[in-house]
């Protein structure tokens, strides 16, 4: 029958393409990672779950809902520093404070939004966290941070590369070094045995190509 | 069906503390503005729960503070005509009129819709909304609504105050028919118009500042000199029962009262009928001798029963005339000059008006 | 399913959920409003505060509480499921979320309307023999019709717009629980989804406009009836 | 200050189409319930914008449909006593009373607060909320509120309908003083009580179904047989001006009217004073010969001016008595039997009542 | 800053924002309510629908719209900034978001109250010489005080609970725009954050209870004044 997939909303474009090429019937439901994890714990009719944060996958495993070892990362992502389309590119993060001037740095919420957590790690690694902490504009999702930059509300923002590529009003000023934060992985797991075939497909090469087409990074094992 | 009322209730700055009993027929509550008439009616209707007292209607205890009995208004089946009309604004006139009909018990008798509508001249208004009615029209609908709820008793708080004279003259006989007809509907009636009361009431309760000043059969209370200040000096006066003896060719009618025969113009009742005569106290003159130069027809030999000084320069004199008492109001000076004392006999010259032609309460 | 078809499906579901929520909530809201307007009792302020709570708490919290209470694994949810009522991850759960979120709005409108009814009219009805229930049905209810209508419109609008509690309680399953706001939110989460979101915002706005216009016309008619013109 | 009113307005099922002019003093609007009295007053007050017409007060055009002029109510400064009291429920009685005072222009003269409060007996009520007042108390506050707004004119819609007799007797002279005193306040006055009108009014406008049936000086309209059906047969009757000649020791007073001298009981006015006499049509009898066996004092030789058949069995007869016209109402059969025709001379036997002792309108 | 201190700071800010939002919104809501209740004009239904819009649209959308209208680069935002009013990342922006989100609730309560005022009383005031403004101030306003209070409570409660539009418009800046709902939401997004969230939910509930109890007491006093007891 139909396979129900609960997935992080930022994967939507890629997942829609992936199910188009899958020969089973799939229903995609999108939500925030924390919300979905809780729902699945409360008995949500999901066969497969794809989250934007390993933290919540870990939580699901700790609840005994999925098998920790059966979870696979299906895609990866990168963080980028963005600015208005007219801004000059940046060499490294050290210029961050100069570029911000009195403005703020838009990013996902440092604790609540996975992208915000990675951005925080990156800034901490760069030794900028203390300085920038009071110049943040934290949003409830990355897309809102992107919109802040796109609307000129903030001069800079840190978002996923996948988000930045489709917004003409912003420009990637700097790719943040991936070693500065935990790997950005999208873990997937089957909640029910019925989800296994699709999970398999998701971890397969066809899906990987489509993830790549949407700007996601390949998963380095 | 008798109504027995004892109320003890206190508002901030106003205390009602009274008892009265009303027999069959129409009981009028009379008193100045703020005397407590509406409060009494509200208590009878069950809209006010007095702090103390007891209200019994026809053997059924509607309220008793001692036994904590309180029959809710809906179960009392009293048709209340409010001082303010209180029509239901969302219902048409005819829906207002028929509002209460469905709650009457199956066998209840009451006025017919068409009769009431015709009596009150509501034919053209039936589909109208209350908001567009004139003041008098509203009051008529409110009257009709209460009549058509087939009540056990009617409570009427100045039901005719904003109606024109001709309409009143149509409604008054109807109320008399309700009272006297097969329904024998008792009515508790508030009015400021002494002529209405003189015409309608069987029992009269005079209220002042929340207390009963006088209460009893209409004839007795109206003939009591103590009632004069309450009724107002221009309105006070005895009401007598008379029988029409004859209509003379000169336009005068002869009427028999217990003390003799009076000649009055404009009596519109057949020979043999009983009518009420209203003899205003201010229209009665006293003379120690039989008066000369005046037609002697309306001169009665009377005995002074009591002299009641008023607030102003006047005094009210109760006069025994046959089986009746009539009232005269003359100046205190005249009392002294004529040397009037109780027990004295003298002559009363009356100017009487007949009320309620062709009708007389039991 | 194409994006367009999904949007229409979400609109249909939203309307469906909003209609049910409004229909089901009106009697409860009316009862609570009546109690708050016409009865004095200990704990009245508390009841009023509880009614306001969904307004004060972030919708996620309400949704989360619903999930805890009515989730499939929760005792209440299980009990309901055993008698055939599934709320969690079902459109009926979206209805419940919409009812709860719209409740304060509905209660307030109806309460204000009830408080505006002159008790003297209800007294008059009582003297005519009407029982409390009859009085409510034949006097109070018609007089507060505009307030009920206003409450219903508020409830409907809120139900159309409810997102946080709904997505938290029943998730975002297309055709089942994906209402227009959830779909709009989802569209906003991917690059290039703005135009699709805009289309759905227009849909929602038009639906709201329709509901408001209908309610205004109805209210006008009801008011005219009472004014008698 | 004259008021000129032309109104052409249509409600669903009711059309108002009338013109009248009111001079100084009190202009009474009289008509049955639903005749259009309140509608006229509302138009004068500016609360109703008639579809057509013109209203001019003391030279100022308040409304003119032709020139699209409409002075808003607030700028008209007319003190309106509403048929329903319309007190502000959130304000105390004294705040209600003083509500309008601040809007009067600096120099405006008007009644004083203490006078009005004393007149209306409101002392004990000043701090009360309107919701707790009795019906009559509300009406008194409404009256006071209008008086204290220092208006250019008073509009009174049955202002005394729910007041008791004694209170009325206190307020009526006060209204006369307002009218006659230094304020010279004109009043447009609606009442169903013909005795109030007979006492107060200078001009009388009779309305029926939205049209003016009769309008003019009180004496003329009251003496017009055509007015009888409108006023009601029990209430109709001429109002005459009389001078008190003497008070006789037997209690009767002699009053001079243009046609002769009448003897009446109970006249409370000093010798030389002018009083209004009300001669009810039903209290006038006609005789072809000087009547015998009756005191001849109140018999006047009169000439028949006109015979006006009524709706029922009665007919109204206008009688020329000196400079005045008095009305008699007798049965149509009597008209035939006596062979009454206009121009004939005969004898009228009167039973008159003096109204408004010590007061007489201009 | 400890989690606890942050929570108290969020509560303080929420109260501050809610108070300002309520104070500022009341006059506007009153004006709109009056127009909707007492004037008939072309486009009235449209105005009413626009007022309802924030109810119908998911809060994110309203937040985006605010960003578009009042953003730093938007003409309106620039104009405000030039007169010294900064909305971006400032608590005043949160106030604006709360005003907009609570507006439909406030307007509806006040409108119902105005519609319940008998125009005959206003007419009576006019015949006593009162100008339209005086009539409003001395008759209408005191009579609708309970409705204004009700609207204010609704607005206050909504402002206390507003989250979606606020975070989208002015982000989540501790001490400036991190209101209690934002903090609660953030806590719920972290595995194991429930207990911290619960503490803040209790805070919000107590604040709401307080506001509702105060408003109920005030309403009782106002009503008693009018009933004269
Ligand atoms: N709730 C209240 N608080 C204080 N006083 C009240 C209250 N209700 C009524 N009263 C007072 O009680 C008295 C009696 O009122 P009631 O309405 O019975 O008078 P009434 O005889 O019907 O007068 P009216 O002829 O003017 O209608 C009045 O003085 C009134 O002011
Ligand atoms: N909005 C309306 N629609 C239809 N008819 C109306 C409207 N307003 C008034 N009328 C009718 O116009 C007539 C005149 O009303 P108005 O209030 O002037 O009467 P009134 O002379 O003051 O009567 P009352 O003595 O009973 O107060 C009434 O028959 C009334 O029903
Ligand atoms: Mg009363
Ligand atoms: Mg009228």
Explain what you see:
- Chain A has 221 residues and is α/β, with parallel strands linked by helices.
- Chain A contains ten helices and ten strands.
- Chain A is elongated.
- Chain B has two domains: 3-222, Rossmann fold; 237-361, RNA polymerase II/Efflux pump adaptor protein, barrel-sandwich hybrid domain (OB fold (Dihydrolipoamide Acetyltransferase, E2P)).
- Chain B has helices at 37-45, 73-76, 93-97, 113-120, 135-147, 165-180, 194-200, 218-222, 228-231, 332-338; strands at residues 3-11, 14-22, 26-31, 52-57, 60-64, 69-70, 78-81, 153-157, 187-190, 203-208, 211-217, 237-247, 252-257, 260-265, 274-280, 285-287, 299-309, 314-321, 324-331, 345-349, 353-355.
- Chain B starts with a strand and ends in a 7-residue tail after the last strand.
- By secondary structure, chain C is mostly helical.
- Helices cover 80% and strands 0% of the residues of chain C.
- Chain C contains ten helices and no strands.
- Chain C has helices at residues 3-38, 44-56, 59-70, 75-82, 91-116, 119-127, 132-161, 164-170, 180-188, 194-227.
- The longest helix of chain C is centred in the N-terminal third of the chain and has 36 residues, at 3-38.
- Chain C is globular.
- At the C-E interface, helix 2, helix 3, helix 5, helix 7 and helix 9 of C face helix 2, helix 3, helix 5, helix 8 and helix 10 of E.
- The complex binds adenosine-5'-triphosphate (2 copies) and magnesium ion (2 copies).
